[in-house]
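Minutes, project check-in
Item: structure for the 266-residue chain
Input as provided by the requester:
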Amino acid sequence: MHKVPAAFHRLRRVGRKALIPFIMGGDHGLALTRRLLPALEQAGADLIEVGIPFSDPLADGPVIQAASARALNAGTTPARVLRTIAQVSRRMQAPILVLTYWNLILQYGPKDSPEAFLRAAAAAGVAGVIVPDLPVEAGAAWAHAAAAHGLSAVFLAAPTSGPARLRRIARASAGFIYYVSVTGTTGVRRDLPPQLVHGVRELKLITTKPVCVGFGISTAAQAAAVARVADGVIVGSALVDAIAKAPASGRVLAATRFVSLLRRRV
């Protein structure tokens, strides 16, 4: 069993929902990323998403866009993010997923092929990959190639996805299905849409795979509400913002305190 489905199997066995924080690789330096990953696991993270910075992150709101820009300005590259993950992944139980964009994957190796990226990700101990700008209709070969390298290819479902498309996403996605709580980009939001619960329940009627909700979850109360209907909660912008607002010496502490607060409610 691949690492991501194995993690959800363990969580279901003990009746716990997945807490999945997101950080931007290289934001405030790759040394901080290296320290954050095991610290987030100790604070209660069950899986961790690491963003690979990109100059045109279409799915991301201003907080994560700013984090991506900081990382790029510091010289962060996909290869450096993967090397940083490799330095800690072997001593962590929490699976690490990377979130990146299709252009970066194709540029990683020769001949516009994803193989070089997948080999490097697998060698680094990455467990899964999320590609927001790769639609499921074009992702069959990608999902097959990822699985051959032991990686879970996670696809996104949106509130605007119709029943036929949801079924296709459910079949293609490995590990879990990433349900986007709102249309638009990531970002801190005061309120989550009232139709979110209905959307998650409708998706769960057509699949036994875990459904995890992200985009806009900003507080422990919101995370608790989502955890009542979903199998996992993904929190990105609020965590990235908390890290950015902390003094340099207190960034790991700020991150672990935030994740610990979420853990008590999820």
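Outcome recorded: The first strand starts at residue 18 and ends at 24.
No further action items on this chain.
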